[in-house]
Design brief:
heterodimer, A: alpha/beta, Rossmann fold, six-stranded parallel beta sheet, six-stranded mixed beta sheet, 11 helices, 12 strands, globular, B: mainly alpha, about 0% strand, disordered C terminus
């Protein structure tokens, strides 16, 4: 019996040693340009146009490059699990370029990259300069917020059917984070006050990016307090905001994607990000070896990556001509450079 | 070991083995039906945890935290107290440790870590003790009260993390990171396995010693097996309501602290990822026996790591992986196969009685 135990222990020890020698992450074949691409979604793709369009853009670039398939990994809503999931994806050694999008991802990618120095990360909608393994692209969300605020300001001070006399605009956000607090919200407020300095902002926080019921309750409360137009920046929770606005006859201005179909007549305007185009162009550049690693760039309306959908039939049908004329005048000033709306990078 | 006891243990082990094999077969069947790359998914599910240092180290790191959480659940269940508030207690422990270490950034590491562990144990213990006290004083069912208190604290903890303790420079809903001096050394980089594993093993050894070698452990077990009998024997059974609950909460709190010190370095909203509930599963599989907690925690961590590997490396989605994982654990925890061998054990037990 004792001998049998000894044989067992020796066998287990031998297996453990053999495993330890074999268990380091496998070295990847060194290639000049990344060719094996994975998209890391910090959330879920369904119902999120920003992530969906990122996947479509990366898919197009990978297909054109003739590379084998694109891995799409959804990390879910729990932010605390993203780092482990991202590291797990990188640790497979099967991808040399990770494409992702979210203001929080650059800091995470930089951290994960330290253990995997050959890995490259393309982070859209984020900003982190001087990280050798990263290329980050931040949208000019000062412009985006300003345009949304300007339209909301025109609506709340105007004479549209759902407008009231309170001069109060609503903002429903998923959570506070630096880009939100230092770029988007100041941009939105500046846009509102460019119309009328007396407009008040009623800001509410959902606390997550998916709770539509809470989004609806918050919007309902805002409308009850005199808000007649709301900008929701709260992911899937925005569905609740649309619902509350439809029920109360209030209006919604949309960020990031074309959401007119969600609530025609209620969604007045969309200030979108051309995420698919950006994902496509930067993934393609990375695969061709033309992307500068360690660089952080800011793209906006002049580059064509932030746009207001002023030709959308829903916008033309829902918004009064005089308000549209004022919006056209604003867009003209931005595109001509008369009005410069910079991202305050020094505050990052 | 006497024959009837040996036979009972053999029957239980055989039942456990059959449950494991049955669960593995079921997992294979589900992967076969749900994955378009069956062989790759199969390999990832069963061998994924041994694929590289990252997966292997993380499996051990997860097991080390689960040992503490499993002990926390076992301490309560073993004394017939049902602490379902582990999730909130882990959260409370982690937040307390983070608050202490962020408040004392220049403290010496032994002092800072010592205070953080003490604070986390007290925070977890207080939350669980409250339910024990309610049971003793007002007859409130601790199963419900511990669950509700935990659920409330999860929201309160979320508020603290994204409110007063929020790191304003971070895009995450999280506290700032603790100072590097307080972070436990990593044993198997790049994985999360840290020296926290030694603390878990120490706690496990201490629990085994206390339960088998001390009067406290004996009384503890006696109250758990038959509280009425223990009361007649002169044991203060009231003490064995609040004390096990507090100890259970303290162990959960420590699990949260070691998660912070060894893995995450900051408290994030939702960062306990169900460890409190997993601790219950670990304790149930181990039959609340401290000596079986380690293999049970390893089994759980193995299944979880395999599930993560298959999710990353194949077309199987997270939802399907959760179904497979839950099915495997249901079979193992429910000990569905124990009865297959129970007859023989009963026969042997009966035979033993006759022989006496």
């Amino acid at each position: 019996m004792r001998n049998r135990n000894r044989v067992f222990i020796v066998a287990v020890a031998a297996m453990a040693l053999a495993f330890l020698f074999d268990c380091a992450p496998k070295a990847k074949s060194a290639s000049a340009n990344p060719s094996r691409v994975a998209v890391f979604i910090p959330g879920v793709r369904a119902g999120n146009a920003i992530y969906d369009t990122m996947v479509k853009g990366a898919e197009r670039a990978v297909k054109e490059a003739g590379a084998t398939g694109l891995k799409v990994f959804e990390a879910g809503f729990n932010q605390a699990e993203w780092e482990e999931k991202l590291t797990s994806l990188v640790a497979t050694g099967e991808y040399d370029l990770i494409v992702t999008s979210n203001p929080s991802m650059p800091e995470l990618c930089a951290k994960v990259g330290k253990a995997f120095p050959k890995e490259r990360f393309l982070c859209l909608d984020g900003y982190l300069p001087d990280e050798a393994q990263l290329h980050t692209v931040l949208y000019n969300q000062t412009e985006q917020g300003y345009v949304a605020g300007y339209l909301a300001g025109l609506v709340t001070t105007g004479t549209m059917k759902g407008s009231n006399a309170a001069k109060k605009a609503g903002l429903v956000i998923g959570q506070h984070y630096p880009v939100m607090d230092k770029v988007i919200v100041p941009g939105f407020e500046a846009g509102l006050r460019a119309v009328d300095p007396g407009i008040a902002v009623d800001e509410r926080v959902v606390g997550n990016w998916y709770d539509a019921a809470k989004g609806q309750a918050l919007a309902k409360d805002q409308i009850g307090a005199g808000v007649d137009v709301i900008l929701p920046i709260c992911g899937g929770a925005a569905t609740g905001v649309y619902k509350a606005a439809i029920e109360a006859g209030a209006y919604v201005v949309v960020f990031d994607a074309d959401q007119f179909a969600q609530a025609p007549g209620v969604v007045l305007g969309c200030v979108i990000l051309k995420q698919e185009e950006l994902a496509y162009s930067r993934t393609k550049a990375a695969m061709e070896g033309k992307l500068a690693w360690g660089k952080a760039e800011v793209v906006g309306m002049a580059d064509g990556y932030v746009a207001f959908l002023d030709k959308a039939p829903e916008y033309i049908a829902a918004v009064q001509p005089e308000l549209r004329a004022k919006m056209a005048e604003l867009l003209g000033r931005i595109s001509s450079g008369t009005l410069r709306l910079e991202v305050p990078l020094s505050r990052f | 070991m006497k024959a009837p006891a040996r036979a009972a243990l053999t029957a239980r082990l055989l039942g456990f083995g059959v449950a494991i094999v049955g669960a593995a077969l079921l997992a294979i069947l589900l992967l076969w039906g749900l994955s378009s790359s069956f062989s790759a998914s199969l390999e990832l599910f069963f061998l994924g945890p041994f694929r590289n240092a990252w997966y292997f180290g993380n499996m051990l790191a997860e097991a080390s935290v689960l040992v503490l959480a499993g002990l926390g659940a076992a301490v309560a269940f073993g004394s017939r107290n049902f602490n379902l508030g582990g999730e909130g207690q882990v959260y409370a422990g982690a937040i307390a440790a983070a608050a202490i270490l962020l408040g004392l950034p220049t403290a010496s590491p032994p002092l800072g870590i010592g205070l953080a562990l003490l604070g986390s144990a007290l925070a977890g213990a207080a939350l669980a003790w409250f339910s024990g006290r309610l049971k003793l004083s007002l007859g409130v069912d601790e199963l419900i009260s511990s669950f509700l208190a935990s659920a409330i604290f999860v929201y309160l903890g979320g508020f603290l993390i994204s409110g007063p303790l929020q790191d304003p420079s971070s895009n995450f809903q999280s506290t700032a990171s603790i100072a590097p001096a307080f972070r436990l050394a990593r044993l198997f980089p790049p994985s999360n396995l840290s020296t926290a594993a030694f603390a878990s093993l120490f706690a496990l050894g201490l629990a085994m010693f206390l339960s088998k070698r001390t009067r406290l452990g004996f009384e503890f077990g006696l109250v758990g097996r038959n509280a009425e009998f223990a009361r007649y024997a002169g044991i203060d059974t009231g003490f064995y309501v609040t004390a096990p609950m507090a100890l259970s909460g303290a162990l959960y709190g420590l699990a949260g602290a070691f998660l912070l010190l060894g893995t995450q370095y900051k408290a994030m909203k939702g960062f306990t990822s169900g460890i409190g509930w997993s601790g219950i599963a670990v304790a149930l599989v181990a039959g609340n026996s401290p000596s079986a907690i380690l293999p049970s925690a390893l089994l759980f961590a193995y299944l979880d790591t395999g599930a993560k590997a298959v999710m990353i490396g194949s077309d199987v989605t997270g939802d399907i992986v959760s179904v497979i994982q839950a099915t495997v654990f249901f079979l193992v925890t429910a000990r569905a196969a124990d009865g297959l061998f129970g007859t023989r054990a009963s026969r042997l037990r009966a035979g033993g009685k006759k022989a006496r």
